[in-house]
Design goal:
About 35% of the residues lie in helices and about 20% in strands. The chain is an alpha+beta fold. Bound molecules: adenosine monophosphate.
Length: about 425
């Protein structure tokens, strides 16, 4: 009896063939755009101390309450597969003393993230994000640059018609005062709210803006808006971000109902959605998180950044798989005893910079030729001891040459000599 087949876990997927090629193209775009703007690549571990997310992302958020994959190590420490990238990047900033570098420090990543979500199209339990974080400056130009880079990335990968919604959450203090106002509004209308929103009036009243529940929506339409309660500094910051986006020709809509699902945001928040994505319409989003580094034990450090979903960008975009570079030399052999010589030629060809492959599947000489043709090889060398038949499959010629001159002959034929 054969062993039962195993499948990838629910909400996860394998990346194969064209998908892998499109991902490489997406990564190349992200690298060109972000490194061109001074962002350095960073990779943090796939798992972190659970406390990082509890403290960083916030105990009241959906992510921390119900979406984390958490486990215990042999010493009884609680670890969590990273559900997002901002808290780990801030942790790394503090751990490596990056506040001593010239500011702002700009970092980007392309990493996988893990959330225990209900799996559906565009929503997975392991997914990838491109992210960009800029730490160490509260200049509104940094917010505007960050947003403009996300918009540029989406354009580069062919996401058309994306909508940019923008708001400001003000400072922690303003938000504290506003939360009280909002709570009284919610309490006064408690009867019309969804069960979920009602149960979180104390914990996270702002999330009521995200509700799809009919009654809640009506209550929220009449709710006081945070944007109207910003202090002068925050209002000025927001107005400069908007002005700079206009200078950069980035179209946006101010949406005072925009609240993001993570606790660390302050001042600017934004989200990009695409109609072509259906229910899971978010392509990317982010904002400013001025208190986060300090909350993680670092010096007071402002920061702003975003993350965009790789799978969502692939669904909404039109990146094409890249062409596979053609094989320049295929090394075939007549008799098994020539396999060793063929392997030597393969190694020599590769050190000379040729894209070379050899027969590795035990095919007959005829089968080898068919395989070389299927690969689109330019040259095939059919090794037979000291002598080799070199065939130019593209140009149509053939010549019998000494085996130790094969690489030289191919290089000459390709005019790279
Ligand atoms: P967030 O960190 O929740 O702001 O998410 C940023 C972006 O990551 C979203 O706009 C999506 O494009 C993507 N994303 C978030 N969660 C998932 C998921 N479970 N599956 C696929 N993509 C996701």
């Amino acid at each position: 009896m054969s062993a039962p087949k195993l499948k990838a876990p629910r909400g996860t997927f394998d990346v194969l063939g064209e998908q892998a090629s499109v991902r490489s193209a997406l990564e190349a775009s992200a690298r060109a755009i972000l490194e061109g703007a001074g962002y350095e690549r960073i990779e943090t571990p796939a798992f972190e101390a659970t406390e990082l997310f509890a403290r960083g992302v916030g105990e009241s958020t959906d992510i921390v309450r119900k979406e984390m994959f958490t486990f215990t190590d042999e010493a009884g420490r609680s670890l969590t597969l990273r559900p997002e990238g901002t808290a780990p990047v801030c942790r790394a900033y503090v751990e490596h003393g990056m506040h001593k570098r010239r500011q702002p420090v700009k970092l980007w990543y392309l990493s996988s993230f893990f959330r225990h979500e209900r799996a559906q199209a565009g929503r997975y339990r392991q997914f990838w994000q491109v992210g960009a974080e800029a730490l160490g400056s509260d200049d509104p130009a940094l917010d505007a640059e960050s947003i403009a880079l996300l918009v540029e990335l989406l354009q580069a990968v062919g996401v058309t018609g994306a909508r940019l919604r923008l708001s400001s959450l003000g400072s922690a203090e303003t938000r504290g005062e506003y939360r009280e106002l909002l709570k009284s509004h919610l309490r006064a209308n408690e009867g019309s709210l969804s069960e979920d929103v009602r149960s979180r009036i104390e914990l996270n009243p702002l999330r009521a803006f995200d509700s799809d529940h009919e009654g809640t929506r009506r209550v929220m339409e009449a709710a006081p808006r945070l944007l109207e309660h910003l202090n002068d500094d925050d209002a000025e910051h927001f107005s400069q971000v908007r002005e700079l986006l206009e200078v950069a020709n980035v179209a946006y809509e101010v949406d005072s109902t925009l609240v993001r699902g993570l606790d660390y945001y302050a001042r600017t928040v934004f989200e990009l959605t695409s109609d072509s994505l259906g229910a899971q319409s978010g392509v990317g989003g982010g904002g400013r998180y001025d208190g986060l580094v300090e909350q993680l034990g670092g010096p007071p450090t402002p920061g702003v950044g975003w993350a965009a979903g790789v799978e969502r960008m692939m669904l909404a975009g039109d990146l094409q798989p890249g062409a596979v570079a053609p094989v320049e030399l295929f090394v075939a052999f007549e008799q098994p005893r020539s396999r060793r010589i063929a392997f030597g030629i393969l190694a020599e060809a590769r050190s000379a910079g040729l894209r070379a492959q050899m027969e590795l599947g035990g095919r007959s000489p005829k089968g080898q030729l068919g395989y070389a043709n299927a690969l689109g090889a330019h040259y095939v060398a059919i090794v037979d001891g000291e002598a080799t038949m070199l065939r130019d499959l593209e140009g149509g010629g053939r010549e019998r040459i000494a085996t130790d001159t094969v690489v030289h002959a191919v290089l000459r034929g390709l005019r790279t000599l």
